[in-house]
Design a protein that fits this description.
Structural class: mainly alpha
Oligomer: single chain
Radius of gyration: 20 Å
CATH architecture of the largest domain: Up-down Bundle
Helix content: over 70%
Mean pLDDT: 80
Number of strands: 0
Number of helices: 16
Low-confidence stretches: none
CATH topology of the largest domain: Growth Hormone, Chain: A
Length: 405
């Protein structure tokens, strides 16, 4: 009995590695990359930021497309994917230290690309860990833990980057590396004791309509997400009155923190509804709440609306993440899940590159690219993108299995 209990899958331990990965991204993508570009490139920081961001996103996409099929092949032979988690975590600890030690723009570029490659050695295979180890009737609970771990990791990373900033870069890199190693150890030590779920007969990978519609829905939602992330700082700076007690950097950091913390709570609340109801309803509800919150924030344009709008958007985002992941786990083929999800995850990587381009072109057409109204219009655009993604999910059929009512 005791041995059986030890072998039962524990979602908190299985998803711990996601905390470590998102801990790094919460610090790097939200604060540190921009700050490092500004300190190393000065007036050219925006151009350098665009180049480094696009290069890293491209490396992430290629890595997932290469590693996903390799991990699927190992899975079909009866082996797990833990080797990829271990290698990615080891390389990631080295590259995050190199990122904060970079003293030139070329060094920063290559360290960021290497960091993207390292962590995406984990991310590609890790997207299949829930159906690998968790029974289908618990996909919603496990996906909620995954979303909560990711949100908590983002929040802690943002806190560390805000507190340590550019004055203690080695300490910041060391803290992030330690978090990645600790979370990887928790997941690896537990996953090796948990028996893998039975694998259905493997069909050849094909670009089916299911994958296309899942991709389009997620891509629009993430296009909106990265538009908000990219323009929130500028929006905050445009609405803060003169003499306000905090500067735009501090207020933006607090907004990101509030969004991620409430997002973790939203994901946990969505766990049971995701398992017991139609995931399309939950996905649409979560994405719709985020879209509406962003639109309200853009309309009000006052600091008093920041906290409630950001909190509501964070709650909706957590609900969306939980249901979106569980829905994909039920619809996509288990035997080629890492490969299929690597393609599906391009709907996250692609918007990282496209969001600034789409926003720039849109604001240019509206004539507000160089205007104080530009950040407001960017938020309206983000809300529209998210709403399209939330509604697009209804092109898909209801997922089989896992529902009790």
């Amino acid at each position: 009995m005791q041995s059986t209990a030890r072998n039962e899958p524990r979602p908190a331990r299985i998803t711990a590695l996601w905390f470590g990965v998102q801990l790094i991204w919460g610090a790097v993508l939200g604060i540190s990359l921009q700050a490092r570009c500004l300190s190393l490139a000065g007036d050219s920081s925006l151009a350098v930021f665009g180049l480094i961001s696009a290069s890293g996103a491209g490396a992430a996409a290629i890595t997932q497309l290469v590693v996903g099929p390799l991990s699927d092949a190992m899975r079909r032979r009866g082996r797990g994917r833990t080797l990829f988690y271990a290698i990615g975590a080891l390389l990631g600890t080295l590259e995050i230290l190199a990122f904060y030690a970079s003293s030139s723009v070329p060094a920063l570029l290559w360290s960021f690309v290497a960091l993207q490659i390292s962590l995406n050695v984990i991310i590609g295979p890790y997207q299949a860990i829930i159906p690998d180890l968790i029974p289908p009737q618990r996909f919603g609970v496990a996906s909620a833990w995954l979303a909560a771990m990711g949100s908590a990791g983002n929040a802690c990373g943002a806190i560390l980057a805000t507190l340590l900033g550019t004055t203690h870069m080695f300490g910041l890199g060391l803290a992030l590396a330690t978090g990645l190693v600790a979370s990887a150890w928790i997941t690896l030590s537990h996953s090796r004791r948990v028996p893998m779920q039975p694998l259905e007969p493997v069909a050849p990978f094909t670009l089916r309509r299911t994958l296309v519609d899942l991709f389009v829905s997620r891509a629009f939602v993430y296009l909106g997400f990265y538009t908000v992330l990219g323009y929130l700082y500028f929006f905050v700076a445009s609405i803060l009155p003169r003499g306000f007690g905090m500067d735009a950097t501090r207020v933006s950091g607090l907004c990101v923190l509030l969004f991620t913390v409430v997002g973790a709570l939203g994901a946990l609340v969505a766990a049971r509804p995701t398992d017991r109801s139609d995931e399309r309803v939950v996905v649409s509800l979560g994405g719709g709440v985020v879209a509406a919150s962003v639109a309200v924030l853009a309309l009000v344009q006052g600091p008093s609306a920041l906290a409630p709008a950001i909190a509501l958007a964070g709650a909706g985002w957590g609900v969306f993440l939980c249901a979106d992941w569980a829905f994909a786990c039920r619809l996509l083929p288990p035997g080629a899940l890492a490969t299929t999800m690597a393609v599906w995850n391009l709907a996250v990587v692609g918007p990282q590159m496209l969001a600034p381009l789409v926003a720039t072109l849109t604001l240019s057409r509206l004539g507000t690219l160089q205007s104080a109204l530009g950040p407001r219009d960017a938020l309206f655009l983000a809300g529209a993108e998210m709403l399209i993604g939330a509604l697009w999910i209804w092109r898909l059929p209801r997922a089989p299995g896992g529902h009790k009512g």
